[in-house]
């Protein structure tokens, strides 16, 4: 929406102060860079007020921020479109021992194909991907890749973290193997998810505070964590 | 210092509210996880208030946060101790097309060897690594590696970004090749530095706003950026 309304936002910004409020940090999204570039081009000075962002607030689960690799986006699959590209990024991070923050898809102000064709400005209810949905998509990819006899970068037992409403009073964090994340109860949106990489003992101690079941962490050394460590 | 004073901080926290203020986000540092674990062990509940952190505020230079790989720490070299491990992490990020945030060393409350031996609690003046110093160390590593006829992951011409006092009124951002960063004027601490990976056109447009010299960005496609792209 910022894309379409950039000119509107900047219209009087040369003579009056204009503020543009965003969720998280202003530079989490490409479109906000675009707004800055338009402002500068129009000779309008700007000032950025930084804020906590999910990109750093995820540290609350105990996984260290400097052990994260590239952040990935997990998109809603449809019947005909099931991209797996985020798996390959998670794999690359895992091969380097790094954790992966997965930002889960948000669909707001979407039109159905029918309404789009008929030009009716009727929007579907907003959808926010849950950790359960993201986990199921990941489990399906693992199944697919297993069929291709590819060396797997993660499995049903890989330790993951589900986070919801981080920063809010009712935030929730759950840690456990991927297969448990498919049914973990995290409540309403927004959700985020982390696929762990190599786990430091202190990180394991922190994750245990949020364990779906303590048992999952007991055999950690012998099973998953040793497969892909740096 | 938190390490030594954790018990002091938590002493009366079971009967009164205790706040522990930090620079940046509370979970940027391992030691703060340790404080949480001690609190939980002592049956003391805790709540985290997130904040902007250099880990996400660096986005103000226009490089996209989701294109960053592992964050590295650059430590002060001494005459006898010149670790190069951060170079290898930068290399790994570059090979994957990712940017690298370099957190620069801070030395506060350090004792000289003499004062340490004699048990004198006299502390050296605080030292904060500048982008100039970090650049010089990196240039020296590049020289060393070139001697070993290793395929270089970065060169004197790799586009870097120097940032100082991010978030403050007098923050400063400069972008240019590494060799220019060795003498870039960024003023007082704290400094941070980014080694770019693969640059998206929008990212280049943003960096140009902070260019030491426009010329450095003109031949970008033909020289550095194509060497290590995903």
Automatic annotation (TrEMBL), chains A, B:
InterPro entries: 4pyrrol_Mease, 4pyrrol_Methylase_sf, 4pyrrole_Mease_sub1, 4pyrrole_Mease_sub2, Dphthn_synthase. Keywords: Methyltransferase, S-adenosyl-L-methionine, Transferase. This is diphthine methyl ester synthase. Belongs to the diphthine synthase family. S-adenosyl-L-methionine binds at residues 25, 28, 53-54, 104, 166, 191. It is an enzyme of class 2 (transferase). Transmembrane segments: none annotated. One of its GO terms (molecular function) is diphthine methyl ester synthase activity. S-adenosyl-L-methionine-dependent methyltransferase that catalyzes four methylations of the modified target histidine residue in translation elongation factor 2 (EF-2), to form an intermediate called diphthine methyl ester. The four successive methylation reactions represent the second step of diphthamide biosynthesis. NCBIfam families: dph5. It comes from the Eukaryota. Residues 14-181 form the Tetrapyrrole methylase domain. One of its GO terms (biological process) is protein histidyl modification to diphthamide. Its EC number is 2.1.1.314. Pathway: Protein modification; peptidyl-diphthamide biosynthesis. It catalyses: 2-[(3S)-amino-3-carboxypropyl]-L-histidyl-[translation elongation factor 2] + 4 S-adenosyl-L-methionine = diphthine methyl ester-[translation elongation factor 2] + 4 S-adenosyl-L-homocysteine + 3 H(+).
């Amino acid at each position: 929406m910022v894309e379409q309304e950039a000119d509107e936002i900047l219209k009087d910004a040369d003579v009056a102060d204009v503020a543009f409020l965003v969720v998280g940090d202003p530079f989490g999204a490409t479109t906000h860079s675009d707004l800055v570039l338009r402002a500068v081009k129009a000779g309008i000075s700007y000032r950025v007020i930084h804020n906590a962002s999910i990109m750093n607030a995820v540290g609350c689960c105990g996984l260290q921020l400097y052990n994260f690799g590239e952040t990935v986006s997990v998109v809603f699959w449809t019947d005909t479109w099931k991209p797996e590209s985020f798996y390959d990024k998670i794999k690359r991070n895992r091969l380097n021992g790094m954790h992966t923050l997965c930002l889960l898809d948000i669909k707001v102000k979407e039109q159905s194909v029918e309404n789009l064709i008929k030009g009716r400005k009727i929007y579907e209810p907003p959808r926010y991907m849950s950790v359960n949905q993201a986990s199921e998509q990941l489990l399906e990819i693992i199944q697919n890749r297993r069929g291709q006899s590819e060396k797997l970068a993660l499995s049903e037992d890989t330790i993951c973290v589900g986070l919801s409403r981080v920063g809010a009073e009712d935030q929730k964090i759950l840690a456990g193997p991927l297969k448990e994340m498919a049914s973990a109860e995290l409540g309403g949106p927004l959700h985020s998810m982390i696929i762990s990489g190599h786990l430091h003992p202190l990180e394991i101690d922190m994750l245990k505070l949020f364990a779906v079941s303590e048992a999952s962490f007991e055999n950690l050394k012998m099973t998953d964590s040793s497969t892909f460590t740096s």
